[in-house]
Design goal:
Strand order of the largest sheet: 1-7-6-5-4-2-3
Shape: globular
Strand content: 5-15%
Length: 482
């Protein structure tokens, strides 16, 4: 393929993507395939000779689309949003076209410098404390990670290194192995499984702190466990607070937890993967109060700010803590400006070495939507979630299981877990909408997350009518069986 054919095929692909997104509501949201469907449809080996673009293109609908779950369908209400917009697609195209590997400033100055500035832009949009911004000569700063899982792991590893060095300076007789065996991290019993996985990868113990009746961790609960662990000779070093938990979008009490972590020399990381985008709206910014006590903070712009995966924004108060944990300087990666104090080498801020020009997505979307456009997008989703909540509350057969704060509604039929498992099964087997469940204490709960960029009030109404009718049918069957 030469440049002339690329221009032609590029136009065809852009038109295909635009048609796909414009007409996505006509596609069944969840596919009709079984595991292993794809292998029989393609050859066992790569072709020896080149194939035409036409041959590849026709196989998109024949082979790929039958197995696609349509995350951007207005009938997709599962998990959390996977953001997308036309500006971010264009930015991704430019990112792939430039094709740089921006692991250091010298590897691509624009890639590095735009990321630093974009993270300052985004930090100012959510009114982060000045210490988290790079600015001109600040000690903090932001970085784009691939996911919130990576951000949690990076922060935990940095906290581990910082704590080991501190304890060794205080007690030189202790070896690194001695200290590692006594380190313990903490998080909520409602936290995402990626926090536990970070501890697994970091080879440290982790304990879940019990949440209260609103599924939030309180300071008193953390302090009780810390006192017990310190008395047992353990070394608390890391706490991951969650703002907007995956099961029910609950919020840990930062104003209670933060001072405890600061007093006890515990690194506090805040995982706001979903909810963080909402903090650009002044009416939701209070949910972030207490961030001033944190050492690191993260949210996924690729969940709710109209930019595609991967764009997970992470900030640290002291970038030296991150760099100190990961910095290695082989000769082939060194450059003349690295010790000047004027540049950032993001390879020291992350697990991988290579990195794409991801900040282009921020640059395109923030400029082409503006803060007000993004605020209205968030507010629309919140309005739609309250519309669904209102519909649920009007039906006495159902109950709301957690406070509806942003774009997630947790609900269930009043009755047994088995009844609600059957309802979810009937919903997802019908494939008109798509939902996933969660467990809140002993209850099996259905999650309704407002996700699509194109979702409207009519889609919410349709979803509820569909759920309500399936519930009616199920209850009739259930009564006969009983």
């Amino acid at each position: 393929m030469d440049a002339a054919e690329f221009r032609k095929r590029g136009e065809e692909m852009v038109n295909y993507i635009a048609d796909y997104l414009e007409k996505i509501d006509k596609r069944q949201v969840f596919p009709d395939v079984e595991p292993g469907y794809l292998r029989p449809l393609i050859p066992d080996c790569a072709p020896q000779d080149p194939e035409s673009f036409e041959d590849v293109f026709k196989d998109i609908e024949k082979i790929i689309m039958p197995g696609v779950t349509h995350w951007h369908s207005p009938y997709f209400f599962a998990y959390f949003p996977a953001a997308s917009s036309f500006p971010t697609l264009l930015a991704d195209m430019l990112c792939s076209g430039i094709g740089c590997l921006g692991f250091s400033w010298a590897a691509s100055p624009a890639c590095t410098e735009l990321e630093t500035v974009m993270l300052d832009w985004l930090g100012k949009m959510i009114n982060l404390p000045e210490e988290f911004l790079a600015g001109n000569g600040g000690k903090g700063g932001g970085v784009i990670q691939g996911s919130a899982s990576e951000a949690t792991l990076v922060s935990l590893l940095a906290a581990r290194t910082k704590t080991i060095r501190r304890v060794q300076s205080e007690k030189p007789e202790l070896t690194e192995t001695d200290i590692m065996g006594r380190l313990v991290a903490y998080t909520s019993d409602q936290a995402h499984s990626s926090v536990e996985r970070a501890a697994l990868l970091g080879a440290v113990k982790i304990k879940n702190i019990s949440s209260d009746d609103t599924f939030s961790v309180r300071g008193s609960a953390l302090k009780k466990v810390l006192d017990e662990d310190k008395a047992s000779g353990l070394i608390p070093f890391f706490f991951c607070a969650t703002l907007g938990t995956t099961p029910c979008c609950s919020f840990d009490k930062l104003l209670e937890l933060g001072p405890i972590c600061n007093k006890e020399n515990i690194w506090m990381h805040i995982d706001a993967a979903y909810a963080g985008s909402a903090f650009i709206c002044p009416e939701f910014r209070h949910l972030l109060n207490g961030v001033e006590f944190a050492d690191s903070f993260n949210f996924n712009a690729h969940k709710w700010l109209l930019m595609t995966l991967d764009c997970s924004a992470m900030w640290v108060k002291k970038r030296s803590d991150i760099i100190g944990a990961f910095k290695l300087e082989p000769l082939y990666l060194q450059h003349q400006h690295q010790e000047s104090g004027l540049v950032t080498d993001y390879r020291h801020w992350q697990i991988p070495l290579g990195r794409r020009f991801r900040s282009l997505k921020l640059w395109f979307v923030l400029r082409m939507y503006g803060v007000t456009g993004l605020q209205e997008y968030i507010r629309k989703h919140v309005r739609l979630s309250h519309q669904f909540e209102h519909l649920v509350l009007q039906d006495e057969r159902f109950e709301i299981c957690a406070e509806v704060v942003l774009g997630l509604v947790c609900f269930r039929l009043k009755g047994s877990n088995e009844l609600n498992e059957a309802l979810l099964k009937s919903i997802n087997e019908a494939k008109k909408i798509h939902l996933v469940p969660c467990q809140l204490r002993e209850k099996f709960v259905l999650r309704f997350a407002v996700c699509s960029r194109t979702v409207e009030s009519t889609h919410i109404e349709f979803a509820w009518q569909h759920i309500s009718q399936l519930a009616t049918d199920l209850l009739k069957t259930w009564e006969h069986q009983q």
